[in-house]
Amino acid sequence: MNLKYCPEVIELVGGALGYKPDYLAPEAALRLFEHCRSFLDWEQSLVMVYGKAHPIPRLNAWYGDDNISYQYSGTRFLAHAWTPELKSLCLSLNVQLDANFNSVLANFYRSGSDAMGWHSDDEPELGSAPVIACVSVGCERVLRFRHKQRAAPSFGMPLESGSLLVMGAGLQSHWQHSLPRRATAGPRISLTFRQVFKSVDHIA
Ligand SMILES: O=C(O)CCC(=O)C(=O)O
Ligand SMILES: [Fe+2]
Q1: CA-proximal residue: ligand 1, atom 9 (nearest)
Q2: What is any one GO biological process for this UniProt entry (predicted)?
């Protein structure tokens, strides 16, 4: 993986973030937003908290190569077959970042009440040092980061429509991220490209 594609690189303890605000031109970002909103197979997953199922505060959709499956928020998803738009974005990112993404988890935050809690994307099927590329379209929202062990303050990255944020290798072992609620916000979709290793599927 090569973060040189990103004009802004933020070195953190244990990993780096890369940011490219203008990854997609505004019209391309709008087209991608409309494509995802209209054509992805959105669902609202459930998460188990103390034995009780709660709907998560956002919609999600999982796309990827054949036979890719992924455990997320306590649910196992089998990837839907790529749409041409998502496949072409994945191929471009693989070239630009020298990566091997084979799937994408799409998140749809319908309003400021939709959010994502603190977590690391460190499931075993993502390997020991996952790289995640996140393309944002729609309303700008802030992604917050906090170190897992150090009692340092968290910090936020505003993710503009059309931007690319790359979470580099090592980051998921040392940092958590979250997308807090907002009093008011328009809809936003994030496309988080990942490499899922099929060989560890059987342990899940
Ligand atoms: O919506 C975002 O920018 C973050 C999404 C995220 O953290 C995830 O899909 O794991
Ligand atoms: Fe995440």
Answers
A1: 192
A2: DNA alkylation repair
